[in-house]
Amino acid sequence: MKTLIVFYNGRCDICGPEVDLYRRMAETNGITGLKFKDISTGRLPTGFARDDMLARLHAEEAGDMLVGVQAFIALWLRLPKFKYLAYLINWPIMRGMTGLIYNHIIAPWLYRRYLRAQCNV
């Protein structure tokens, strides 16, 4: 498999620990070709705005930027305990439904929650 770079919001109190779980799982299983980049600070990939990237999980594979459910599928396919979930969600009808749920409910809620937490700091 090609290298997958996962861009995530390390300051989100839900997203950060979730990605840490994925990172530990990759290390424990000796999975190579999987990198994680916290984009809450520092440089971003060229052509991308911080707010857009913080609002949804992004992953880059072979020069292609995957967003939302597609990024999760690419990540989970590399992790033994999540591989079957990735296959299930990758079925066309499931991918469409999970995409709608993630893009219109989960991701906006997480991002608003993150923004509120940043204002209260």
Compute the number of helices: 5
Strand order of the largest sheet: 2-1-3-4
Percent helix, as a range, is 40-55%
Overall geometry: globular
Poorly predicted segments:
none
End-to-end distance, in Å?
Answer: 40 Å
Going by helix content, strand content and strand pairing, the class is alpha+beta
Please write the string of helix (H) and strand (E) elements: EHEHEEHHH
Count of β-strands? 4
Strand content range: 5-15%
Rg, nearest Å: 14 Å
Give the rounded overall mean pLDDT: 93
Give the number of domains: 1
**Main beta sheet, described?**
4 strands, mixed
Describe it for me?
- The protein has one domain (4-119).
- 52% of the residues lie in helices and 15% in strands.
- It contains 5 helices and 4 strands, in the order E-H-E-H-E-E-H-H-H.
- It is α+β, with helices and mostly antiparallel strands and 121 residues long.
- The mean pLDDT is 93.
- The protein is globular.
SSE topology:
Layout: E1 4-8, H1 15-28, E2 34-38, H2 50-55, E3 58-61, E4 64-67, H3 69-76, H4 83-89, H5 92-119
Parallel strand pairs: 1-2
Antiparallel strand pairs: 1-3, 3-4
Helix pairs in contact: 3-4
